[in-house]
Design a protein that fits this description.
Length: 192
Amino acid sequence: MKAAKIVTQRLVLEVLNAHAVTQTYVDWLTDIAVNQYLESRFETHTVASVKAYVEAVLHSADSLLLGVFVAETQLHIGNVKIGPLNRLHQVAEIGIMIGDKRYWGQGLATEAICAVSAFAFQDLGMRKLEAGCYVENQASRSVFLKSGYQIEGRLRAKWCVQGQRQDGIRLGLLPTELPILNDHVGRACKTG
């Protein structure tokens, strides 16, 4: 997959490699507050298994895993994934995890989603982006809505959460719907 480095006002998003996988990263995946809405919560994670996953995505032709780093400190705080990409229909799935809880509630996830969405449209040639979340995941839904995504549907009883069925929400974004704030960068949008 194409190398990428995206710089926003507060973040640097760049292709993640196995060197970025630390015990702290693995701890995010096992933290109940972080993983409560991630499908990866059903797996056992080790530094070796996460490195293998990162390497597999790194060599994938249809997915791109970007680390989310604080620009000022270069601290790795999460990841954004683009993919799988459907090049025939020019559609891609977007997902995000801010694993470092110290950075929650600061608009960084919205900034990252806006930036990666602009990148997917401008640099990868996508014509539509899609995302999904559990109906109870208000934070994720809010981030995508702030980034211009529209709710396109509700998937009834899609997920099993603690023995209960829960609906899923599907969201989508077209290039004309991305709220661009900064023409100079072209990859930032409203974060408030």
